[in-house]
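Chapter review: from sequence to fold.
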Amino acid sequence: MSARRATAAVLLTLAACAGDDVHAPGSTDEPALVEAAAARPVAAQDHGWIGVTAPAEAVDVAPTFDGVVAAIAVRPGDRVEAGAELARLDERLLREELDAVRAQVREAGAAARRAAVEVERAQYRLRINQAGFAAGTEPASVVEDARLEVRADEAAAAQARAAHAETKARLERAINRLGDTAIRAPFAGTIGLRYADVGAAVGPQVPVVRLVGGGRARLRFAIPMAEVTRVAPGTRVVADLADRAPMPARVATVSPEADQASQLVYVDAEFAADLPDVPPGVPASVRLGDEGLGDAK
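The C-alpha cell string follows.
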C-alpha cells in the first residue's frame, strides 16, 4: 500500500471511530473525500502521528428495535433541536401486536380469576371434611386428600397470576415500543448524512441519519502500539495543520485496545478553549507538546 493510501485509510478510520455509538455505513463519496484529505499538505507529516479534526458531537441515530421507515422529516444540512422528530417507523405491525397482547392479557386475567375460585372451592371442601372428621363421620385420609388439593390449587393459582403478570409486562413493552416509533434527535445539531429512505428496514445496528452537534472540533489521532506508553489522558500534544499555527491540545481518552487491522491505538484530544476553532475533517500531524506552545486548557 502506498504512503498516500495508508494515510487515507487511517484518516477514514479516525473520522469514523472514537466516540460514535454506531459506526457509520460507508457512502459512495467517502473514498474520494479521504483521498483528497490525504493529498492536502500537512506540516511535518513524516515526523508525527496521523490525525484529523472531528466534530465535538457526532452520532448515528437509530431506532431501539427493528422496523420499517414510514416517514423521514429531515435532509442533510438541516438544523434540528434536541428532541425533534427525525423519522418515524411504520406502526401497523406494532398496533397488531398490541391488540394481540391485549387479548392475551384478558385471557390470562380470566385464567387467574378461575384459579382463585378453584382455591376457594378446595378450601371450602377442606373445611367440610375437617368438620366431618371432628364429628367422626370422615376418616383422616379424606381430610389429608382435601388438604393436598388445596395446595395443588394454590400452586396453580400462583402460576396463573405469574402468567397474567408476564402478559401485562408484555403489554407495557408493546405500548412503549409504539411510542418509540418516533426517532428523535438526542441533541441539537445538523444532519450530516441520511442513510435510509421511506420503506427501508432499519434497527439498532442500522441507523437512519447521522447527527453532528455544535461546539469546538476535537482532535483524533492514531499511534503505534509500541508508543502507547507515551500518551495518556492529560498528556499535552500539538497538532500541526496546513496553513495554521501549531495548535496545542490535551488528550481526553485513549482506546484500551489496538485496532486489529492497523495495529494502531486511537486517541481523542481536546483543543484549548482560547484557540481559534477549526472545521472537522482537517488532516493533522500530531506530536507531543512543546514547552513553548503553552498549555491546552
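Two observations follow directly from the output. The two ends are 38 Å apart (CA to CA). The chain has a mean pLDDT of 81.
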